[in-house]
Each structure stands twice: as structure tokens, then as C-alpha cells.
Amino acid sequence: MTFELAVFDMAGTTVYDPDLVAQALQDALTQAGCHASLADLRALMGYTKPAAIRSMLVAHDLSADDSQVALVHADFVQRMLDCYRTHDAVRPMAGAGEVFAWLRQRGVRIGLNTAFSQDIAECLIERFGWRQRGLIDAAISADRVAQGRPAPDMIRALMAACGVGDATRVIKIGDTEVDIREGRAAGCGLVVAVTTGAYHRDELLVHHPDAVLDRLDELPALLARIGRPNPA
Asked: Residue 231 has what pLDDT?
């Protein structure tokens, strides 16, 4: 059996981001009077940003009602849009475009999913030209489904968009423990973690992915070793 769809996370997996997400989240929370550490915020990478904001507000005994969470989230989104549109350090992860092309040449569709809101995701996709260059087939964000990670909703939405009915034919690739849990919840046939983002190898291994890669461009060699898809 071959794979039909590869679902990639964005920041930390296919997008190089030198801690800009955690910094923007910290700045937005600080503006609201919540002084969270970067270490605590990094541990929440991969989760929906409203959920991360609510968690930090509660942890600091601050109001975490819907209106307050929405206010902080709106601040965070604007900071991320400003950053992702212009920051020189933001770029595709090394090998991302090549891996997308390699998979698509072998009949594997490419889906992107993210805990960002759709406007941030589209900002990156447009900046990198991934859709215009025909490198991706679909993209989804946490604000477009009922539940974000670790629920399987985003993966299932991408499967529907790409016409894939069997989750065992899906590869999930991400840089956080919640990416791994998302892949397991969806029943993906292969769940791959990468060390290019929020988590180190040992931190990922405790969540039992099928493989841990140090570079995204190691994925073709992994698939060749396991015989799916045909690497020829």
C-alpha cells in the first residue's frame, strides 16, 4: 500500500521561524498583563493559539473569558502578520519545496495544517509562492474546524479536500508532541516528528512517533527505507 497524502505542520516543520511565534505570543500576553516565560510558551507550540492563551491566563490567575482570549489572540495575530510578511529570517524550511515536489511526483498530495488562524497560514503560503508553484494541494488552519490539535479534525478536512478516504494512507509530519498525538488520533499510517522546531529528539521520542528526523529532507530516504511510496 502506498501513501496518498502527506500532512505537514507549518512553523517549525516547513517554515523556519527563529522563535518568532513564542515571542509574539509572549508580547501579546504581556500587553494584557500576563508575564509568561518563553519556555512555558514553547511547550504550547502546536496547540491552537486561543487555547494556549487561555491556558497562560488561567495559570497566572487572570481573566480568561472568551472576550479576553479573543482580545489577546487578535493582538497576537496582528503581530504575526506583521512579522511573517516582512521579517527577513522567515523562510521555507531547508528542503521543504524539494520534498513537496518529490512527493507530488510520486502521486502523494501535499496538505498543510497549522494551529495558526487561516490569515496567518495564507500569508506564509502566498509569501513563499507554494500554491502558485503547484507545490501544495490544500491547507487548513485550526480556526476552520471544530477542534484543533490533538483532535483529528484538520487532518480529516485535508483528507476530504484531497479525496483520500483511508487514514492509513496519510503521513503526518510535525515538530511537536501535539502533532504526534494528532496523527495518532486520525489513524495516520505514518507519524513522523522533526527536530527543527519546538522540541528536541528526546522530547519527541517519549510520545512514540514512528520516526524522528533531524531534517525535513530526510523524509524521502525514510520512505525509501520502508518502501512507501515507490522511490524510483
From this structure: 46
